[in-house]
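Figure caption, in words: inputs first, then the predicted bound structure.
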Amino acid sequence: MCVDSSISVSYPLGTTPACEKDAKALEFIEEMTNYCDNVQKNVLSEILAQNAGTEYLQQWKLDGATDRETFKARVPVVKYEDLLPYIQRIANGDRSPILSSHPISEFLTSSGTSAGERKLMPTIAAEMDRRQKLYSLLMPVMNLYVPGLDKGKGLYFLFIKAETKTPSGLVARPVLTSYYKSDQFKTRPFDPYNVYTSPNETILCVDAFQSMYSQMLCGLIYREEVLRCGAVFASGLVRAIKFLQLNWRQLAQDIETGYLSPKITDRTVRDCVSKILKPGRELARFIRKECCEGNWEGIITRIWPNTKYLDVIVTGAMAQYIPILDYYSGNLPKTCTMYASSECYFGLNLTPMVNPSEVCYTIMPNMGYFEFIPHDRSGNNDSVTELLDLADLEVGKEYELVITTYSGLCRYRVGDILQVKSFHNSAPQFKFIRRKNVLLSIDADKTDETELQTAVENASELLKEFNTKVVEYTSYGDTKTIPGHYVIYWELLVEDPVNGPSDNVLDQCCLAMEESLNSVYRQSRVADNSIGPLEIRVVKSGTFEELMDYAITRGASINQYKVPRCVSFTPIMELLDSRVVSVHFSPAPPHWTCERRF
Ligand code: AMP
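Bound structure (adenosine monophosphate present):
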């Protein structure tokens, strides 16, 4: 899609593009958002023409039609489970055009799960360029608001994760792993606005400790040049600071001696970091002085004094990390630049310096074809009625996002609930409200109510021989600990208190719950260390009655009252915590391997 030269761009008051390249990118955004509906019409027509010969589209008898009306009338709205048989065939080696006429280049593993495993999203090579295009728009927008970012570096903690292969040999990995390993990322041309402290080799090291250690070391070495600090999600930056708290002694020693710790065994990492690391007495002394007293307030601005903002997503489930980031950074601005998923990259934030509570994302209409199911807050969303287009949405209303992609997903429910806040030209700007059905999320994990219920049931099996039952439970994502962890409140019915379950049995119940949770949870526990051991807090008998009484005093209907399966409201937490009789933690990590069941 080329830039329309008749578009005139009006920049926010007092701002101008940083360079010619930025001006072009901003013009592109203006064009896409001015002609939102037309672009969407063309995107759908392109996708349908491209994939007309696929088995999936053929069955809906479009007969070559590429218009919206026929598409909407004939193609159903689907969920992952509806597509699973097609996806499984691709994974097993069927190379016929099933969902996409272009060859499937790899599977992207979403953090959403199905039957306990990450969802597999087939993708095609051309999607990488589309993602790259969206990335290329981020800095031109940021440069409007924060000048001078070409005068220093970005300290970004970026990681790859283990990948696996499908039975037919296709790679399956998270979308960011795929991006960081791509030529688009590895051999990106020099751009003064996108210079990172972390060399590619440190990002591409699959060992989580060595990758974090070497990235932190480089960040410390370049500390005065750092102008922005970030990670993809807030949980990643919080984890990096915790890493500094645990490893500053060794890091300072490496800097003092100019010799990299023997814990870093990866040859490529050693080679590239050794070129950067020089003996630096002064810097080592400074790091020790800042870290030795265990005062972590404002640590980001003390160590990296020229940081202008934190570049991390703090919308959605990540909002829980805002207080700790404010504490670490002395309230530096937090910018949420982008909204994306494994299925499709969606859009960007055109006013990145606003407060997290005001963040809106503008879906770029060139990325895919987007439809919206009006979302009913009262929960009556089972019957899907009419789906709306990007240009038809109304300010203030909530919608569930449905996508049709070049890779072959057709009318696929992503599961995100968005609210229209305003329009940029004719493109709606969305507040991210929440992910449907997610009860607990600490890092990339997304645990729903059914998974939690199954985990409680499986763990309760261990209580049977002690004539004990879990009569009620609820949960809480505790991010005051670093890493955060799941807390499950249990009210027990112990029929024979003399022979009730011991502490050891309840500890084992914690582990049994973890073993039952999905593979993203277990990977975060085992490989990434981004979630701490699960905790069960046993509460006094009668506590959940009190919880109901409390809800009723606040206006809940006695007939319709349901125990909330996740809590975060402070008075409720206080009530629960004041009734705790014993606390138990998982004694070991659950099982996880990067191999998956196909
Ligand atoms: P995944 O499929 O693992 O790539 O995760 C994608 C999901 O992460 C999206 O569908 C959202 O639920 C969530 N997500 C991505 N970007 C944002 C954002 N900027 N703010 C809030 N949630 C986000």
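The chain has a mean pLDDT of 95.
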